[in-house]
């Protein structure tokens, strides 16, 4: 939380944009409570008061606010997994400052020297190599009650549409590593197939190792919801555990062995690390 | 071309303030003194040419009635004709020390008067002109202190009114001995520049209007004002007339420091976009106008630069500080 706040203040393009970050927060709150007109009214009142107090501040005053906040967060280098994963934070805890992408609204793309004579007429124009790769700002974020803030800082950082700037130097590398991740086998799939293999009796049951071996079956989308459901479950519904001795059933084993026999692989059997890998490879070939 | 030298470790990291590095060269002892603001404290250290820190000292802003220690806004060495003083400005007042920071010789408390408690009260912007030290304040007033050749008998001789918003930086250059020569420029949060002539009574020569964008750093060289703005622009004006001669789209983020190497007319600009640029200023022999040439670009990766200074009058080396960075980075030409 602290680091997310520091990130937003540090990366904020113009000092004045700290207000746009706050408006992004308020927009998100408005999204949560859109069905409740009374609360919505309170949020809009908050918005109105923020605009009243901060709307008229000069760029210099916003810079003072930003600098003071940065002094408050100075020497905090906590590493945050989501930032590290998105490569917006380095392993030493410092944030990545992009040297490309759009410049702040009102700023010209660096790289031009213009010279004027005494009457203010432009007499010479020289380009120079700045070192960054910037583009002009598309438009200014809206400081109105409703509108496009443009700035993504301050929006939900867990949403799929990541608020991070993708214009950093290692962007292409980043993309490559993501593709690599998706090629790598999902460990959960392997674990599930191993379980299936065990049920089929084609693999001996080992003692569980590690803190949480295998996988759990969730009836809800997240662990939090699962826990919540467990807590709110009415007392009268007692646990009824159903034991299925699938691995012990000899008759079924014979039947399964026959089915497994049908999955005959014509190619040379590969040297794989485990049964799960075997099954995955087999499915790839089907 | 510049090459990175061994950096100087700091005990505490640098705060996100503009012009957050002061450099004093002591050629007689082959030493360089550095001053960096950490937040509620400031660090002074002296280093040998190889970058080995020899002595460190910490200074604190004078405590007041508040609950939290006051934040320091700037430290700067003022080289006067007969002595060198270290000036420290904070949200409480102005402190002047002997050049090594050992003895505080003067304290000036800021008078907040009847301003509302939400208004930030501070001093910022330090420069010396002749035997005067000028310090800017939050209200836009510039305080002029008369400094005796020795001893603590410092007096506030004048208050200059020219700015309506907080002063950001002050630059001076030695008077060239001519009449009507502008030798001091002050900048403020609205981007307004005031050009002054120093003397027993300071005289406002010109005002160069701003654009609503702050001007965090300003320099003066041979009658040319170099101003760095919050939108990454560097502008060069004729000090006496206020005519704009050069406009450089120099940086992608707010400029936080400018410095000049007076012997060669090299200008250094540093900004929050992690870049430090070196420019060469010259006078066109034909028209007499100031011209600019880009010499060098240095990127300090993932560092929001907050201070940068040349380390010698020939501009062959410079030092950089960055927000949250507990070292002074040094570069020298090869």
From TrEMBL, chain A:
Q: Which InterPro entries match?
A: OSCP1
What would be one Gene Ontology cellular-component term for the protein? cytoplasm
The UniProt entry's coiled-coil ranges are none
Q: What is this protein called?
A: Protein OSCP1
Origin organism of this chain?
Leptonychotes weddellii
UniProtKB/TrEMBL annotation, chain B:
Any stretches that span the bilayer, and where are they? none
Q: Which InterPro entries match?
A: WD40/YVTN_repeat-like_dom_sf (IPR015943), WD40_repeat_dom_sf (IPR036322), WD40_rpt (IPR001680), WDR54_beta_prop (IPR049546)
Q: Which GO terms describe its cellular component?
A: cytoplasm; plasma membrane; vesicle
Which PROSITE patterns does the record cross-reference, listed alphabetically?
WD_REPEATS_2 (PS50082), WD_REPEATS_REGION (PS50294)
| Quaternary structure (record) | Homodimer and homotrimer; forms tight forms of dimers and trimers. Interacts with IZUMO1 and IZUMO1R/JUNO.
Role summary: Plays a role in the adhesion and fusion of the sperm-oocyte membrane through its interactions with IZUMO1 and IZUMO1R/JUNO. When cross-linked to form dimers and trimers, it has a regulatory effect on ERK signaling pathway activity in response to EGF stimulation. Colocalizes with the EGF receptor in WDR54-specific vesicle where it sustains the internalization and controls the degradation of the EGF receptor after EGF stimulation.
Instruction: Tell me what this protein is called.
Output: WD repeat-containing protein 54 isoform X1
Q: Where in the cell is it found?
A: Cell membrane; Cytoplasm; Vesicle
For the keyword Ubl conjugation, the answer is yes
One Pfam assignment = WDR54
Q: Which keywords label this protein? A: Cell membrane, Cytoplasm, Fertilization, Membrane, Repeat, Ubl conjugation, WD repeat
Q: Where is the WD repeat-containing protein 54 beta-propeller domain?
A: 1-334
Gene Ontology annotations of biological process type: single fertilization
Q: From what organism does this protein derive?
A: Leptonychotes weddellii (Weddell seal)
Q: Where are the WD repeats?
A: 248-282
Using the UniProt record, give the first listed, main subcellular location. membrane
Respond yes or no to whether keyword Iron is given for this record. no
